[in-house]
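Customer ticket, subject: "Can you confirm the structure for Transcriptional regulator with XRE-family HTH domain?"

Message body: Hello, I'm evaluating your service for our small team and ran a test protein. I'd like someone to confirm that this is what the system normally returns, since I don't have a reference to compare against.
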Amino acid sequence: MAGATPTLLRRRLGEILRTMQMRAGLNLADAAELLGLYGAPTLSKIENGKQRPDLERFLSAYGIDDPAEIAETRKIAEIASTSRQQSLFAQYKDAIRPRFADFIELEQLAVGTDAYAALAVPGLLQTPEYAFAIIGGSNTWQTSREVRAFTSLRMKRQELLTSDQFTLRCVLDEACLRREVGGPAILRGQLEHLMSLSHQANIELQVIPFKAGTHSGVDGAYTLFRFEVGDPVVAVEPLTASLYVEKDDQVARYAAAWDRLRAQALDPESSRDFIARIAKETR
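Agent reply: Thanks for trying us out. I re-ran your input and got the following:
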């Protein structure tokens, strides 16, 4: 099979195949021989997401006969095989840095995201002016051309919000609404944009005000990606690298924290009113 750059979803498929191998009571060498592969190193590449598998051969060799498990594994393999073949990567290859590529891939393949924003409005919700100001103010991009390209990519990503097959739930810390990114006029335009987006059926916005005090999001911003099949993935974005949380127990902790955060935040209608009040104060 042709080689492939390992991605989060291909690695996840590899982990599923490794679990099947262990359930079948096979070591790496015996499994490779059963599959007709060129030794254990080839199977290891597949299980680490570096090489695409012949899935039907794996399912047959490992004796997988549960229709539900077969269907889910096939679906995950289908999703993984489309990774990074999308036009977004081709169109913006110069703007998509390696540390951000997995994030965009997960976003494009997810059926929904749950995001907590601590310091700034998330990219999917930004106006062009706000995006240009915040991207230009970062240390990531060196030239105005790079800033324009990444701003354009951010606007292109927002096409997800026009699909009724994709849902976005976001909790915004009050700090996001008050930080004057680009100045008062740009912030006011951003706040008005949030109010408009909050009326979309596939978007839910909540605000957690300063007066709420400490809450379950104080450890920092994160995004939880949900997929048609398979478990969610959590992305945590520190300054120098994106971190991805995939282990069930760790993802469960983020999911529980998200539920608590939503419960602590204002409801969507009250949040819209809260944003409107801040917009009126922003001059």
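A couple of notes from the result: Confidence is low (pLDDT under 50) at residues 1-6. The chain has 13 helices and six strands. Feel free to reply with more questions.
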